[in-house]
Design brief:
This protein has one domain. It is 0% helix and 38% strand.
């Protein structure tokens, strides 16, 4: 997944906040830079925080590639947009 406007990053996985009680010693939020490509798995939900205070208003493209895990081939591509006003 590539999101061009991320400035804060992933703050939760599977509905649980990273870096919060009672598991803060085992996890922490982590930053994803704008335009950085990162991998997610289908069996997990990630919460991504986009800090709109640091991003210029506009419409940004998001690219999602669905890849076969073992051979690594791309099975499909999805595109969407994020609009910041």
């Amino acid at each position: 997944m590539t999101i061009p406007v991320i400035s804060r990053g992933e703050v939760g996985i599977d509905g649980r906040s990273l870096g919060r009680s009672p598991f803060q010693q085992y996890s922490r939020p982590f930053v994803r830079r704008a335009g950085e490509t990162f991998e997610l798995t289908a069996g997990r939900r990630n919460t991504v925080w986009i800090d709109t205070a640091t991003v210029a208003p506009g419409t940004y493209d998001v690219l999602i590639e669905y890849n076969q895990w073992i051979p690594g081939e791309t099975l499909g591509v999805a595109r969407t947009t994020i609009t910041i006003t």
